[in-house]
Design brief:
The complex is a heterodimer of chains A (263) and B (259). Chain A has helices at residues 3-19, 21-47, 58-86, 90-94, 100-130, 141-166, 172-181, 199-202, 206-220, 225-256. By secondary structure, chain A is mainly alpha-helical. Classes of the chains: A mainly alpha (263), B alpha/beta (259). The interface between A and B is medium-sized, with 33 and 37 residues.
Chain lengths: 263, 259
């Protein structure tokens, strides 16, 4: 692994953010719109005295911030790949000494930094507009973020692998993949409300532990390390599988001659 | 002269279709070799296999003494390419694009190298312009700057003048020859402009239906296909004859179609 080439990939996508209004919208606009919608819903529900289970309503805002981090992490990885396919730059990159591991590392690192920028923006806005303190989660914030980031990278790489295999006709998943698992992620409701048959599926989803765990911290002030470890192990498993899938489909595309026909 | 590219029994099969079928050739250091053939002949597939972008079904590729299959990074560090069908990210400026690729190739003193190339290709004034706002001729020059960033010892040029006007194309050809004379690099060149091939290439390899049909100097190839009585290279006539003969033409070196 050459960190010089990883840095070149980081630079390539960083330059892209600077010049592309669409990427700035992804970074700030859409996450802020989500925060405003859910934030004002929270204000309204508070005003009418809606307080299920004594939980308060701040978890709705916390939920949308965490959910935004997950889908942005996934989306950033896949959209960055698409940018090079749209620009017909993919062959330039892979006709250079760049290794696949360096490309993936550069992509996920840029996606990680972008997600952290979005997180800080949303945390400051939530504090200013709704007096919601993300930092009230205390040290639990860091391990939960790690799960979401790693799981998001994994989903993004799965979508990227599918784009390498099937081309840009499956690009819609770059924006929508995370939403496929939203119903079983317990973002705004506990797993217990899901049909019994679906609940085991929800517990295979690393994000579920984060959203359930966040509510436990708010309600009881308890951080379940055992649950977090399980979630992190699942997220790392998804990431490892996604890297394997990406490498496999990339090499398959080289064999089939599809790599040179991506558009 | 040492051998820059050595291709032995190279084949590529896509399903039931043989895109490239058991071809062998070599390119010497300092030589410009044209890879010719009608659409679908297998030129681009061959170049893409030489760049490691397509995995061969069989055969061996050696570039600068390295086995491409086992030493891909070492090979790609010393080669580069430019194609009319591959672009650079349009929103990045000329400088930013070249900066990224200079770092990918590990170009020493890369800022000086980029400035030198921009001056050589007379586009220094465009360095802060997004690539997407350039004319196709200007873009082609940026692409050539990218292709020369790492001072490659082997250069693949896939229809490099396809988007240039005749004057710009002429100047590009002169530049290729000057760079070859100065740096002694090997160039594998494809183009549909036969006059250009005759003007630039020392030797041509004519591919048809994935097989090498003829190989030699432009005049030798013309004679192999059109007959020994020909005394001027006429690759355009060769091209037309081969393209019109289609399936009827046998694909063994030296064979020629009925006139």
């Amino acid at each position: 692994m050459s960190w010089r080439r990883v840095y070149a990939i980081i630079l390539r996508y960083s330059y892209g953010i600077r010049h592309d209004a669409a990427r700035l919208f992804d970074l700030f606009f859409w996450p802020i719109v989500d925060l405003l919608v859910w934030g004002f819903l929270t204000v309204y529900l508070n005003d009418i005295g809606f307080n299920p289970g004594g939980l308060g309503l701040s978890w709705l805002i916390g939920g949308i911030i965490f959910w935004t981090l997950l889908y942005r992490s996934s989306q950033d990885v896949a959209v960055q790949l698409l940018e090079d396919i749209w620009a017909r730059n993919f062959l330039n990159l892979f006709a250079s000494p760049l290794r696949l591991s360096e490309f993936i590392t550069g992509m996920v690192l840029v996606a990680g930094v972008k997600v952290l920028i979005t997180l800080v923006t949303l945390a400051v806005l939530a504090l200013w507009l709704y007096h919601y303190q993300l930092l009230a989660l205390g040290l639990a914030l860091v391990p939960y973020l790690a799960v979401l980031l790693v799981f998001g990278w994994g989903m993004g790489l799965v979508v990227s692998a599918l784009i390498i295999r099937f081309g840009s006709r499956v690009q819609v998943f770059a924006w929508g993949a995370a939403f496929l698992i939203q119903p079983i992620s317990a973002v705004f409701y506990p797993v217990a409300v899901l049909p019994p048959l679906v609940q085991p599926l929800a517990w295979l989803n690393p994000a579920t532990y984060v959203f359930e765990g966040m509510r436990q911290v708010v309600l009881h002030g308890v951080f379940r390390w055992d649950q977090w470890l399980l979630a992190q192990a699942l997220a790392l498993g998804v990431l490892a599988l996604s890297i394997w899938l990406f490498a496999w489909l990339f090499n398959d595309a080289r064999v089939r001659g599809m790599l040179t026909r991506l558009d | 002269m040492s051998t820059a590219i050595r291709v032995e029994h190279l084949s590529k099969r896509f399903g039931a279709h043989d895109a490239v079928c058991d071809i062998s050739f070599h390119v010497e250091q300092g030589e410009i070799v044209g890879l010719l053939g009608p659409n679908g002949a297998g030129k681009t597939t061959t170049i893409q296999m030489l760049l490691g972008l397509i995995e061969p079904t069989a055969g061996r590729i050696e570039v600068l003494g390295y086995d491409l299959a086992r030493q891909r990074t070492a090979v790609l560090q010393q080669v580069n390419f430019s194609s009319a069908y591959v672009s650079l990210p349009p929103r990045l400026t000329v400088w930013e694009n070249l900066d990224v690729f200079a770092r990918l190739y590990g170009v020493p003193r890369h800022r000086e190298r980029i400035a030198e190339l921009l001056a050589e290709f007379e586009i220094a004034h465009l360095r802060d312009r997004p690539v997407g706002t350039l004319s196709s001729g200007q873009m082609a020059r940026v692409s050539l700057c990218k292709a020369l960033l790492n001072r490659p010892r082997v250069l693949f040029l896939d229809e490099p003048t396809a988007s240039l006007d005749p004057d710009a194309a002429l100047r590009a050809r002169e530049r290729f020859k000057a760079i070859r004379a100065r740096d002694g690099l090997a160039i594998l060149y494809t183009s549909h402009n036969m006059a250009e091939i005759e003007a630039v290439c020392d030797r041509v390899i004519f591919i048809h239906r994935g097989r090498i049909l003829a190989e030699g100097s432009p005049l030798e190839v013309t004679r192999q296909i059109l007959g020994a009585a020909v005394d001027e290279p006429d690759l355009e006539e060769v091209f037309i004859q081969v393209a019109r003969a289609g399936e009827a033409i046998p694909t063994t070196a030296g064979a020629r179609p009925e006139r």
